[in-house]
# Entry
Amino acid sequence: MITENPKAIIAGPEAETMVRLENVSKQFGAVKALDKISFEIRRGEILGLLGPNGAGKTTAMRILAGYFPPTSGEIFIGENSLAKMPEKVKRMIGYLPEAITLYTDMSVMEILNFVAQVKAVSRKKRKQNIEETLCRCGLWDVRNRLLGQLSKGYKQRLGLAQALIGDPDVLILDEPTSGLDPEQINKIRALIHDLGREKTIVLSTHILPEVSMVCDRVVIINHGRVAASGTVEELEAGLDADHEITIVMGDRHRKNEVLALLESIRYVQRVSVLEERADRVAISIVIAHNAEVRPNINRLFAEKDIPLLELRTNRLSLEEIFLKLVVRENF
# Structure
């Protein structure tokens, strides 16, 4: 399980912008798939691109990968315009589509060698690049096996490997853990997390807990527009919604006194007892408009000499934030 994010220093506010979309739109006949979306990604940052089905995520990723051009707007990788310098920019990008199609009668080594040639990796660097990628993606032991003989997990690793050939600065990963079992998912997540130490990654997935575990920041697209962007904490703060605090007090006989004190605090919407055990009482407090009331609670307990054993804020999950934002956009 991933417990820390050592990339935070690399992808800090001072890090250079590696990917920039400026007012990008895409029209398919009468359908506007993207409507002037703009966002930036810093070097060494993993960005989660989220949205309901049909929101425009895959279209955005395909445009970013140079798969097809936008109807209007500009894309920059570093200081290079994708429209003006397509060959140079595409060499800086590795792309893993949701459904990857490779030749089933070729071996892993043959496929990566073919991809290296297509990406114009020099003969001098090709062998080392392929061997390093095989080792990094855990494919060395199956390098001579035909693609058609690989499990789903190894095929997904090969998809990541082909995206890594040529040592691109930016990786675009569309549903990289789709269809994998839990063990395979954990291995792919760990690999992506490791890659994020040195590369800029755009990751699209329907598994929202995956975004919380792997990504530094989130962009939510809905109806072809950017509905919200930021860290999970920033998205929650921007909702201006009610949130919940749980406290545990150590004197059950003063429970009613405490309930009345808590209800008297400004912005407290609702107070209820969650559990009583021995001399401890757990209490839920619903706070309006994301207000900060923890100092008030601490002060009241200190003034009344009531033992406060625990005070914690119950954060919204990314799934709850996503649903609230999408529902708010749709109505």
Remarks:
- The first strand starts at residue 17 and ends at 28.
